[in-house]
Amino acid sequence: MTIFAFRVLNISPQPFHTLSDALEALYNDSSCMGTTAQIIAYYKNGTQLTVPNELYTHQEPRFKSVDEASTWLKDRNEKAVNGRPLGILVANPNDTFEKQLDDAMSVKDVRLINDKPVASIVSDIEKWLAKNHH
């Protein structure tokens, strides 16, 4: 089956003719987080496939240690306004501190893969598309 276009949802309404162009648009959009953008391959027969985010993103823990998370939570909780924390919410401030810490340690940030050449990522995605399109 032949792919005629790719789209990167939440980045551009315009289609891209190559997977490389779609990935470049994704990587060049500094406001993009890997979790919000999706690459979709459109085939000439009218079918489409959404490329799994895992092929162009990776997850990493928000906090590298329990001490780092604990310090961040204590600081966030101290700066709360009317009991409401400012900034990102990685844990419910109404939970016990231990539960907040557990929740904070489970948070993963999704980032675009940037330690592999785009050509390598394109190759991985093309293999996945060939295997999964019927």
Can you characterise this structure?
By secondary structure, the chain is α+β, with helices and mostly antiparallel strands. It has 2 domains: 3-57 and 114-132, no CATH class; 63-106, no CATH class. The chain is 36% helix and 23% strand. It contains 4 helices and 6 strands; from the N terminus they run ββαβββααβα. The chain has helices spanning 19-28, 66-78, 97-106, 118-132, and strands at residues 3-9, 12-16, 38-43, 48-50, 57-61, 108-112. The strands form 2 sheets. It has a 4-stranded antiparallel beta sheet with strand order 2-1-3-4, with helices on one face. Strand 3 and strand 4 (48-50) form a beta hairpin. Helix 1 packs across helix 4 and helix 2 (66-78) packs across helix 3 (97-106). The chain is elongated.
Sheet of most strands: 4 strands, antiparallel
Assembly status: single chain
Number of spatially distinct domains: 2
The level of helicity is 25-40%
Percent range for β-strand residues: 15-25%
Structural class: alpha+beta
Number of strands: 6
Broad shape = elongated
The low-confidence parts are none
Q: Indicate the mean pLDDT.
A: 84
Main sheet: which strands, in order across? 2-1-3-4
Distance between the termini: 8 Å
Number of H- or I-type helical stretches: 4
Work out the radius of gyration: 19 Å
H and E order: EEHEEEHHEH
